[in-house]
Amino acid sequence: MVLCNILLVAPGAIDAVAxxxxxxxxxFDTFQPWARVGLGALFALALDIVLILFIIxxxxxxxxxxxxxxxxxxxxxxxxxxxxxxxxxxxxxxxPDVLRVKSKVGAKRGGVVIExxxxxxxxxxxxxxxxxxxxxxxxxxxxQMGLKLSKPTKVNLRAAPYSKTPKMTVRPKVNEQPPIAxxxxxxxxxxxxxxxxx
Length: 198
Description:
Layout: H1 2-9, H2 13-29, H3 33-59, E1 66-68, E2 78-80, H4 81-93, E3 98-108, E4 111-120, H5 126-144, E5 154-159
Parallel strand pairs: 4-5
Antiparallel strand pairs: 1-2, 3-4
Helix pairs in contact: 4-5
């Protein structure tokens, strides 16, 4: 394409291109026939790879940055993928026993694809917590944001590790005796009323 533009803009360049092509042909005539074929094949392969990459870059569709809201009335509404991920992260993070949430949101032809990486406290009931997280994600996406899930939500649940330090327990000393109460009929001195002298 560049060569065509140069030839059309500067017709005198045709003579220069012809001279360079003749010099290149003379240079290749000095090689053995098997070397000429090998170099030609390598050059053709490199050129084919570059052209295939250009075609792939032209044909490939860019990632969608927003998703159309299904339940919008009166117009077309699109929500950005980043705002969907932020809202989902905020809502799931508010659930009890959830420490951290990382959300990945993608757009597919049928709707939204969600993957959540959730860290919970140690000792949580995994099936119950996973069901709660999936239910919360589905409610946020479908009911609150008006979007549609194209496939079920994927949740990668990870419980925080248990504490490595042993719990400290207080044990009574062996020689320690409980305090002995005074005679049951006598009131204790601490509980006697204080009388002031007049």
